[in-house]
Amino acid sequence: MKYITDFASGFMGLFQTGGKTFIGWMSSIVPVVLLLLVLMNTIIAFLGEERMNKLARASSRNVVTRYLILPFLSAFMLGNPMAFTMARFLPEFYKPSYYAAQAQFCHTSNGVFPHINPGELFIWLGIAQGVQKLGLNSMDLAIRYMLVGIVMNFIGGWVTDYTTAYVCKTSGVELSKEIKLTTNADEAAA
Q1: I need a surface site. Which of 15, 41, 105, 124 has the fewest CB within 10 A?
Q2: What are the pLDDT digits (tens) for 17-48?
C-alpha cells in the first residue's frame, strides 16, 4: 500500500510543480510574449501589408537578404508558423532553401524573442533555468545562440540552394527562378 501511496503522491507532485511553474510564467514570460505580439502586429499595421510584401520581394533578390534578413524579419513580425508564408514571394527554386533557413531561425532566436516560437518556449526556459542555477546570465546565452544560429541558418539556406540545384539536375525537374505573384486584382479578374 505504501508504494501506491508514494506513487500517487509523486504523481500529484508532478502536476503541482507544473502548476507552480505555470503561475510563474503568468507573472513573467506570458506578459512579455503578449506585448511582443502586440508590437509585431502594430508594426505590420503601421507599415501596411503591401509594404511588407514589397520588402519580402526585395529580399528575395540575393542570398544575404534571402537567408539572413527575410527569415529574421518574417520570424520577428509573424512568428512560427506564419513566418513560412513569406516564401510565397520567392521563386520556386529558392523556397526549399528559405524553408531550411526559416525553420532553424524559429528555434535559435527563441531565447531573445520568445514570441517567435512560443510552442517551444518551455525548452528554452528549462535551459535558461539551468544556466541561472550556475550563476550565469541566460541572456548572454540567448544572444550567443541567436548569433550562431543566424550564421548557421544562412549557411543552411545557401547549402540547400546547391542541394536543390543538384536534385533538379539529377531528376530533370526545372524550378523557376522568376518571381510569379498574383494580386487580389488578378484573382478577381480571373
Answers
A1: 15
A2: 878 877 877 777 778 777 777 777 787 788 87
